[in-house]
Structure formats: structure tokens, C-alpha cells
Amino acid sequence: MKRTKLIMLFLCFLVVCSCTNDSEDDLIGLDQEQGSDDETDDVEATGITYENTVKAIIQGSCIGCHDNPPRNGAPFALVNFQQVSQRANSILSAMARQNGAAGAMPPAGRLPENTIDQIQEWIDNGTPEN
To answer: Which of 38, 44, 77, 109 could, after both became Cys, cross-link 68 (CB 3.0–4.6 A)?
Structure first.
């Protein structure tokens, strides 16, 4: 019995120790050159545009309420590029708020930092569509 407990304790220890992730692969901009002044180079280097990145984020996290017509008390729709790009800064600030804060979006919980960083980079690049 004592041996079984010791084995279980050891296995639990292994599980806890193996649950780490030191990967930086999901971070944005690690392999980009610093100091690029050309917006076109930034867009090409990151590939973050409305069509290939932002649209999927909005559809997966926002369209449940911000459909056309808006539902669940949402004040506006976010179904196309024009609507999203016009409200890009307010969308970003709502996504960046902590859970439970007034106006935090999406209501289900804060999005991963990587997703928020992608929206920020899209805005910094001038909200390109394609």
C-alpha cells in the first residue's frame, strides 16, 4: 500500500513538472527585423490582414452578438471589413480589458494575449484588408 502511494506521488510529480510551455513560437514579431519604417514591409512580414487573420478572430469571438442585426444588447454589427476597421481601436480596448471589467469583450472571457497582439499589429499596420 505504501509503495502504491509512493508511485502515485511520483507520477503526480511528473505530471506537474511536465505541464510547462517555454515555447515562444506563438509570439508575434520575434523573427522580424527591428526598425522597419515601411508599413508595406511590416504587412508582408507579419501577414496580418483582415481577410487572413482578423476576420477569423471576429467571427469566432464577436459575431455571436455583433451580427447583423446585433443581438444580446450589442450596439453595432461587426460583419464586414468596413465595420470592423472603423471600430478597430474600440474593439481592441474592449478585448484588452480584464475579465469582469465593465465593457470587457467578449463577455465569455478575455482572449489570449497573442490574439490581442494580432489585432494591435493589424491596427498598427493601418488595418489592411487583403
So the answer is: 77
Q: How many CB atoms lie within 10 A of CB 47?
A: 9
- Count CB neighbours of 75 within 10 A: 8
d(CA 28, CA 26): 7
Task: Give the C-alpha distances (Å, rounded to integers) separating 94 from 41, 78, 104.
Answer: 28, 14, 5
Q: What is the mean pLDDT of each run of 10 residues along the chain (130 residues)?
A: 84 68 55 45 66 93 92 92 92 78 79 91 93
Would you call 50 helix, strand, or coil by DSSP?
helix
Cell numbers for 33 = 527585423
DSSP 8-state secondary structure symbol assigned to residue 84: H
- For residue 77, give every residue at least 6 positions away whose Cβ sits within 8 Å of its Cβ, in sequence order, or none: 66, 67, 68, 69, 70, 83
